[in-house]
Amino acid sequence: MDANLDLILTLSGIAISAVLAAVGIRLRFRETTDIRPYRMPWMIIALVAIALGFMLTVHLVNLFGFETGGRR
Questions:
Q1: What is the 3-state secondary structure (H, E, C) of 6-71?
Q2: Residues 61-72: pLDDT tens digits?
Q3: Vertex 19, ends 64 and 33: CA angle to 5°?
């Protein structure tokens, strides 16, 4: 894969996961007057987006040439 395309896809993934995490946290902690028992699990969605963003950030650091991880 071309290095420029990989960089663009990684930065796009980080931006999408950041937006998804912000929306998930905002929707999880909003006040509601509705008494319906079913709600979307927004906290789980936000936590998955945060974890994905962290993994993509590590991938971005690797793309810049720094070695991450403990290889022995």
A1: HHHHHHHHHHHHHHHHHHHHHHHCCCCCCCCCCCCCHHHHHHHHHHHHHHHHHHHHHHCCCCCCCC
A2: 999 988 877 766
A3: 160
Q: In angstroms, what CA-CA distances link 10 with 30, 64, 66, 72?
A: 30, 12, 16, 27
Residue 45's Cβ-count burial label (10 Å; 0-12, 13-18, 19+) is middle
Tell me the C-alpha distance between 24 and 58, whole Å.
Answer: 22
The whole-number pLDDT of residue 44 equals 93
Q: Which regions in the chain score pLDDT beneath 50?
A: none
The pTM for the full model equals 0.82
